[in-house]
Amino acid sequence: MSKMNMGRVLTFITTEDEFGSSDYVITPIPAHRTVEMEFARLGLVGKIESYELSGVMPLSVAWKQVRQKAKGMGITEIRYIEW
Predict the structure, then answer these.
(1) pLDDT reported for residue 76
(2) Cβ pair 44, 67 in contact under 8 A
(3) Does the N terminus or the C terminus of the chain have fewer Cβ atoms within 10 A?
(4) Short-list 26, 2, 29, CA closest to 14
(5) What's the chain's average pLDDT?
(6) Cα dihedral sign, 78-81-82-83
């Protein structure tokens, strides 16, 4: 039997840029990555207003939660971040 991939759901808001815009992001991340690792990978260190990290769950469940959370917030545009 193969090992199940585990993940978490990371939700964060970036600080406002020079135009007064910020981003709201909901994304699954691998369970072994820390929040700091993910922000560094995305080039967002020091640019985060707030964040929330879920508990560990199967990656397929994390993807489902991301889609449900986005749908519940009326988010229609989904972009995938490469791991």
Answers:
(1) 77
(2) no
(3) N
(4) 26
(5) 89
(6) negative
- Read off the tokens for 77: 């545009």
- Residues 12 and 51: beta-carbon distance below 8 Å: yes
36-63 burial, b if ≥16 CB within 10 A, otherwise e?
eebbeeeebeeebeeeeebeebebeebb
8 Å CB contact between 26 and 54: no
Q: Which residue has the tokens 């922000």?
A: 39
pLDDT of residue 61: 94
DSSP string, 23-58: -EEEEEEETT--HHHHHHHTT-TT-EEEEEE---EE
pLDDT at 10: 94
Alpha carbon of residue 36 to chain centroid: 12
Burial grade of 7 (CB within 10 A; 0-12, 13-18, 19 or more): buried
